[in-house]
Design brief:
Layout: E1 4-9, H1 14-29, E2 33-38, H2 41-48, H3 57-74, H4 89-101, H5 106-118, H6 127-136, H7 141-148, H8 151-166, E3 174-177, E4 180-183, H9 188-195
Parallel strand pairs: 1-2
Antiparallel strand pairs: 1-3, 3-4
Length: about 200
Amino acid sequence: MSKTVEFLFDLGSPATYLAYTQLPKICEQTDSQLIYVPILLGGVFKATGNATPAAIPAKGRYMFQDLDRYAKRYGVPLKFNPHFPINTLMLMRAVTGMQLRHPERFAAFIDCLFKALWVEGHNLNEPATVATVLSQNGFDPNEVLALTADEDVKAVLKDNTEKAVQRGVFGAPSMFVSGQLFFGQDRLEFVREALS
């Protein structure tokens, strides 16, 4: 495996969820490695002056219709989360902590959170809801909460986010192949071509 895809992601983006459902398959088909890089989308938006498309009502309505089209094309479930937007600071610290401290459980961890947000429509702004979701998926909420307070974990997430901005990232999902940036789940065919 000589080719890699760096997948810069934040759980709070429905487009990122769709990319997440497709990238492993693309990497398998192109004999490439998928590298997950957690970032804080709110931090990227603040640094770049960008904002969610949902901030513009007409664009937001269109975006969710378009994402629904892609979900049908990909054959994956997608439900608009009625609690959107989600403040993902604690979630992305937890994701970063799991990647750092428990890499063997990382895939299952992000999978349960992506599904909770974009298939089951849970309000992950609520700590009690997060705790329930984690418990139901075999994770100890107290252990996860401890990860979010870990100074090394906080530093890694901040560093990932700052480096992403320095590399030209302005939103999520963002993918890098051979140093080339691809933004948006609707650019996955370009990612595939770059890997082939």
